[in-house]
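Run log // design_07
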């Protein structure tokens, strides 16, 4: 951890590349130039956001949206084709002439 800590003359410190593994209690010792020391405790709590997980979720949602768009388009095209087919069939039924067929009894 020492390679990730920077101390300043005013007594403050800066931590670099902190993660959840760095969470915990830290005891700080401040020593004056005359030799007297003061102890203090710092509680560090780090909540990490994993950007890889957010990226995965974003890509997954984009993929689901694309699949939904394709399915909706496919349903729309099928609906249009079915509508046109039904119109043609109705038109043919109106044009065709009806014939009367006489049914005959068949003896067994």
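design_07 sequence
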């Amino acid at each position: 951890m020492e390679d990730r800590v920077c101390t300043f003359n005013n007594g403050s410190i800066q931590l670099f590349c902190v993660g959840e593994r760095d969470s915990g209690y830290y005891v700080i010792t401040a020593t004056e130039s005359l030799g007297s020391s003061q102890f203090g405790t710092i509680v560090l709590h780090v909540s990490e956001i994993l950007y890889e997980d957010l990226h995965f979720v974003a890509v997954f949602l984009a993929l689901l949206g694309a699949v939904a768009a394709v399915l909706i388009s496919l349903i729309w095209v099928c609906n249009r084709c079915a509508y046109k087919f039904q119109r043609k069939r109705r038109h043919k039924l109106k044009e065709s002439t009806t014939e009367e067929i006489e049914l005959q009894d068949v003896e067994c």
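The two ends are 103 Å apart (CA to CA).
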